Amino acid sequence: MIEGPLLLVVILLAVVLIVVGASVFKVHPFIMLLMASLLVGIVVGIPAIKVVGFINDGFGSIIGGIGIVIILGSILGVILEKSGAAVKIAEFILQTIGRKSPELGIGFLGALVSIPVFCDSGFIILSRLCHVMAQKRNIAAGSLFLSLAGGMYTTHTLVPPTPGPIAAAGNLGGESYLGLVIISGLLISIPVVLIAVSYSKYIFKKYPYESELSDTPILSDQSLPSLGLSMSPIFIPLILIGLGSVAQFVGFHNGLIDALVFLGNPVIALLAGLLIAVPLLKYIGKVERSSSFQEGLVQAGPVLILTGAGAAFGAVLKATPMAQMVEGWLSGGDAGGIYFILAGFAFTAILKTSQGSTTSAMVITSSILGPLLSLGGLDNPTGIVLMVAAIGGGGMTVSHANDSFFWVVAQFSGIKDIKVAYRTITVMSLVQGMTILAIAISGFFALLSQNHY
Question: What sections of the protein cross the membrane (predicted)?
Fold first, then answer.
């Protein structure tokens, strides 16, 4: 079996194959991940039939752990989008937080809505509110659009059940700690959104532009569900998952603790959210009502197969001598964990920048680093949370012309000049990503460094 530096060369070539195949030849990352898994296993010297077994086991284990969560989250997001619940939540936030600072209100609105709703479609929906608010408040539309994009992109990369962070958590062995990942992702999101809002206000003073008012009508108050009904399907699952995570750390069992652990299981919590969302269906047209579930399944499909393929790649890597090789490098080095955090950010950022997809970049990086976390002392709840954050920060760095969200933001914001789009959307994603990295590094030295020195 191949070992040492030659093994590293094989793995690096496999990663290059994935990136080039996906970005240059436009082959779906699922196919490239499977091909890379097979090639690495066979070239390294693992018997071919065993390589297939590792691929199947890796794919099946991750889908079994988080597949239902991804499906339920996708369906819930479609219902919130089509029923007008997302717009109702938007109106509430803009009338409260957004009164004194519209940019701040719409930034946190984007962060909230992007947890269950895919950020591309969520931005399209809420961009109409930016047009109206800019007109009513007589303020520059650009800062509103960019604040919304920054808020949505933040939770898109940090907070499950959004596909990227939930896949990263699964690949890193954090299926049992999703509640902690959600809570920490929400806390990290607060300063990151504040940074995005501040940058939005600053940059559009330098690069103002005119945006035409959208002709798409805003839903009327009469067609929207109540605020409580709109927010319950989001907040009740998050609260249940949070309580379940706390209950798991209590250390003893009784009826209440066991019930909280059960209800806090992400599958049960999201299923409860979906049941709570059933009354929202009456706000959806009869034709679209039956298709909402189908659309959620369609949205979840690509995420599921990509997540499974990433886990399969990680399973093959775990079967190679890579872990022993890295362990040898780190022997005698006390700061291994911080190197993993930096590597997680840097590698994800390279993949994201080169091939455009945040989710695939997070999946690939987490599948490679997952088998190695114990070598850096990060195979614990805190370490996994910090790694998910670092990988999420890398997945945000940077959004540019090969990223669909970049074009959605530019087009629906009315940005016609590509240079302005780069100076605003791209630079903001870089600033946000670096902020997340700084938080992850600070968290490591505050919470884990004592284990290494």
Answer: 31-52, 59-80, 104-126, 176-197, 234-253, 259-284, 296-317, 329-351, 358-378, 384-408, 420-448
Distance between CA atoms of residues 326 and 77, nearest Å: 41
Geometric angle at alpha carbon 101, from 136 and 234, rounded to 5° = 95
Q: How far is CA 160 from CA 21, 169, 200, 361, 426, in A?
A: 28, 9, 25, 16, 24
What total of structural domains would you count in the chain? 1
Query: Which residues span the domain enclosing 430?
Result: 5-451
Looking at residue 180, its amino acid is L
User: What tokens does 12 get?
Assistant: 């690096």
- Of 442, 384, 320, 451, the closest CA to residue 160 belongs to 384
What's the predicted TM-score (pTM) here?
A: 0.78
- State the DSSP code for 226: P
Q: How many whole angstroms separate alpha carbon 142 and alpha carbon 4?
A: 52
Q: Which of 154, 101, 106 is nearest to 127 (CA)?
A: 106
Q: Which residues in 177-234 belong to E strands, given as ranges?
A: none
Q: Averaged over 226-233, what is the pLDDT?
A: 90
Residue 309: its H or E element: helix 286-319
List, for residues 208-226, the tens digit of each pLDDT value.
665 544 444 444 444 789 9
Per the structure block, which two tokens stand in for 190? 């607060």
* CA–CA separation, 333 and 28 (whole Å): 39
Least Cα distance to 452 among 385, 377, 379 occurs for 377
Q: Which residues contact 324 (CB under 8 A, 6 or more apart)?
A: 3
